[in-house]
């Protein structure tokens, strides 16, 4: 259950967004949300973690990017996939809430 890889923990540290929710397992630390990007247009960048600021830039420069949001506790290593959504010029902001897919 608390099996976050060192890569996920580093992604949370350098690219994650701290939430106001406590870890449901250890209850000591707040969880962090990490966004991973995937898509044919990304080439070597596919599979990388990106900050919310970087996601905004990617949305304007790519047609379609699949984004996966993972919550992780940097203290105990608990993690899980929260949701996924499509981002990019082919996906206007108005339609994004309809494309959110809870996991």
Q: Could you characterize what this model shows?
A:
It is a single chain. With 103 residues, this protein is an alpha+beta fold. It has one domain (6-102). It has helices spanning 6-15, 52-61, 96-99; strands at residues 17-22, 30-38, 49-50, 65-73, 79-87, 101-102. Strands 1, 2, 3, 4, 5 and 6 form a six-stranded antiparallel β-sheet that branches. The radius of gyration is 14 Å and the shape is elongated.
Summarize the helices and strands and which ones pair or pack.
Blueprint: H1 6-15, E1 17-22, E2 30-38, E3 49-50, H2 52-61, E4 65-73, E5 79-87, H3 96-99, E6 101-102
Antiparallel strand pairs: 1-2, 2-3, 2-4, 4-5, 5-6
Short structural description:
Helices cover 23% and strands 36% of the residues. It is built from three helices and six strands; from the N terminus they run αβββαββαβ.
Top keywords for this entry?
103 residues, alpha+beta, 6-stranded antiparallel beta sheet, 36% strand, disordered C terminus
Number of folding domains? 1
Average residue pLDDT = 89
How much helix, percentage-wise, in residues?
10-25%
Number of helices: 3
- Unreliable stretches covering 5 or more consecutive residues: 94-103
Terminus-to-terminus distance: 17 Å
Strand content: 35-45%
Q: Describe the main β-sheet briefly.
A: 6 strands, antiparallel
Shape: elongated
Radius of gyration: 14 Å
